[in-house]
Every structure is written in structure tokens, then in C-alpha cells.
UniProtKB/TrEMBL annotation:
The modification 4-aspartylphosphate is found at residue 55. This is Response regulator. Gene3D superfamilies: 3.40.50.2300. Residues 155-220 form the HTH luxR-type domain. InterPro entries: CheY-like_superfamily, NreC/VraR/RcsB-like_REC, Sig_transdc_resp-reg_C-effctor, Sig_transdc_resp-reg_receiver, Tscrpt_reg_LuxR_C, WalR-like.
Amino acid sequence: MTIRVLLADDQALLRSAFRVLVDSEPDMEVVGEASDGAEAVRLAREQRADVVLMDIRMPGTDGLAATRMISADPDLAQVRVVILTTFEVDDYVVQSLRAGASGFLGKGSEPDELLSAIRVAAGGEALLSPAATKGLIARFLAQEGTADQDRDPVRAERLDTLTGREREVLVQVAAGHSNDEIAERLEVSPLTVKTHVNRAMAKLGARDRAQLVVIAYESGLVRPRVE
């Protein structure tokens, strides 16, 4: 199955470089290029993209707004957005995850990391930046003010729908662990972990694992820690 990739960046040279890289892979193809967020949303719909590589800072409709539009459109539920950023430690990164992005990747990442991120995003399996530290999201949520009184009560109530094991798995997901790592920690099979993750996503209304991480922190299940 070929992964259909849409490139959204206002720098034509960068888009060209990404196109050459993506089109060189037998399981991927670039189906469109956008120079701003509004065009990215339109092309995502028209070209039935699987993954959008989305720059945050673009003229007009920026990547953050475009990500919100894609996430809010039921017809684009299958589209996964990977945020491309020059600085991985960026306030917009967490805002993008909250808006519905599947994860983020630094523009300085190695080609293999970018290709891997596209495949991971298409599969909805993991948080995406190989170079990001596991505590990055926690630190930003702490900086943005996620004290107990600021936590989302609706999401906190939704946690009541989770079983004890699903909560346990969610805590591990929020810590940045893969299914295999969680399986080893909890002494269960990776398939069992995947089942729990999928059920937690369905109950909490999360698009993918990245959204599960944000929900875990915003609901108060996991507390931010600044190192």
C-alpha cells in the first residue's frame, strides 16, 4: 500500500528536497505541495493524503490553524499531520499536538528519520520525533500552566471509562514508551498492549498515540515534570 504524502511548506526549495526523498521510496509518493495552510487543507481533501508534512510558520493560514481544520473535518479523519519545525523545543509543538497533529519532527533530522516518521504516522503507532526527549511534552505543559485547577475536567471524567489496565498502559504511553517496551514492563504481549491502547483511544476520542499523551497530561492522570 502506497503512503500518499502532502508537503506543506512556504519554502519551495525545501519542498523540492522532501519530494525527491519521499518519491525515492517504493512505498510512498508525493501527491501535492502547498505553500500555506489553507492550500494544505484543500489538497489534503482533494488528493486523499495519508500524511501531511506541515510547517508551522507559513504566511496566511499557518500550520497550526491548518492542523486544527484537518482534525476537525470528519472527512479527513484518516489524515495524519506531522509538524515540521526548525526548533523542536517550540511552544507551537504542543499547541499543534493539542490541535490534532500526530507528532513532530525537526527539519534537521536525518532522511531516514523523516521517512520513518512518515511510516509511523501513517500507522498511527507512536509519537514521532526521534530526537525529542520523552519529557518534552511534559515540560511544555508545565510551562503553559497545567496546575490541578487548570486541568480539563471533561477529559478527567472520561478517564473513568478506562479499565485499570488501560489506565496503566496510558501512563506508559505518556512516558514515551513503545508497545514492546510497555509489554516488557507489564509482562504482557505487545498485541495485548496494542489492544489496550486502541481501546483507550476509542474511549477518550484520541486520533492517535500523540493525542493520548496530551490527554494523559491535561486530564491529570500524569503530572508534568520539569527537569
